[in-house]
Amino acid sequence: MNFHIISVVPEALASYLNSSIIGRAVGTKKIKVKILNPRDFTKDKHKKADERPYGGGPGMVLKALPILQATEKILARKDPKKTKVIIFSPGGKLFTNELAAQWAKKYTDIVMISGRYEGIDGRVKKILKAEEISVGPYVLTGGELPALIVLDTVTRKLPGVLGKDASVEERRVASGEVYTRPEILEYKKKKYRVPKVLLSGHHQNIDGWRGERKSL
């Protein structure tokens, strides 16, 4: 799977992409991540990728041409049927685990256009026929965090990334309530114990307990 992130602040992405499971997935070549900065596709000496909005209003808007040229460079040798282009928007289609699983099976390349400031020139979406995706009903400073959320969620669905299929939470009986050693935790003169069922060794009862906690 190849992930392409178009962002005017690529430095905001580096730390997460080099860490933990995602960093290992990159290192073992389970995924490839490329970041393109629209500023590199501008021609003025200041590398300006934004402009004031038509119609007035506060803030700046990311210009269409640098983003279109960056995307064009990505798409030049890609199969359109196996490439997904998305733009992040609070009003877009809600991103879910189910959607991530579909994309992991269907696509080889996912292009994510990260907005900033007051947004992206509306012609980008029309020209690229990009789908608007939302990671939640709120507004963020930019599209970099949503891009990392999508990358992380899709990557976890790829074979071999988590080592064992059972490591994927949605494929096993899991709960929001988990415990580890010690069996008895003493804190501020009070003792907190691990639920007895988890110490029983009775897997059917344990799965039942976890299933109950998962539905709470």
From TrEMBL:
GO biological process entries: tRNA N1-guanine methylation
InterPro entries: Alpha/beta_knot_MTases, tRNA_m1G_MeTrfase_C_sf, tRNA_m1G_MeTrfase_TrmD, tRNA_m1G_MTases_N, tRNA_MeTrfase_TRMD/TRM10
Annotated compartments: Cytoplasm
A GO CC term assigned to this protein in UniProt: cytosol
Role played: Specifically methylates guanosine-37 in various tRNAs.
NCBIfam families hit by this protein: PRK00026.1, trmD
HAMAP family recorded: TrmD (MF_00605)
Annotated protein name in UniProt: tRNA (guanine-N(1)-)-methyltransferase
Species assigned in the record: Candidatus Vogelbacteria bacterium RIFOXYD1_FULL_44_32
Gene: trmD
